[in-house]
Structure prediction request, 175 residues.
Amino acid sequence: MDMINNKTLKKNLLLVATLFISQLMLSQYSEYEWVERDTWMNVKDIFAQAGIDNGSFVADIGCHEGYLSVHLAKAVGYEGKVFAVDVRLDRLETLKNNLKDREITNVNVIHGDYDDPKLPKNDLDVVIIMDTYHEMSDYMTILKRVHASLKPKGKIVIIEKLKTHLKGKARTTHK
Prediction:
């Protein structure tokens, strides 16, 4: 009987370890990488340039597991609101867990469509699209919808890593 229980226990532990490792591999930016990312991405400077501060209403399009959304939530405080948008439910579930673990309550998690981030109209001070713009095939439709979500003096901030071989080329030439 003990031998069966030990074999079952080992199989269950192996299954849990395999699921944990595969979940880490599926994440684009796993949380353990956030500390390292903070060394080269100065989010405070980005927020200052965009005018994001306490009380701001902001969106993070392509939020993934929530690196930027968590930083935004701290920056806008309880008076502000973050709308975290992604098209993948697995990323949004990870984000929800990250928010719950940190007891962050000022983030609305939104399952957007590929052509519609589903943001509230005329409500946002800043919308950040980070490491996501290159994936948008219908970018003009999305940008029009993002623009509709902004307050009259609202801003769109696009942060995109540009590969060397794409510099100086029009968007239509690098699909």
Observations:
- The beta strands are 57-61, 81-86, 107-111, 124-130, 150-159.
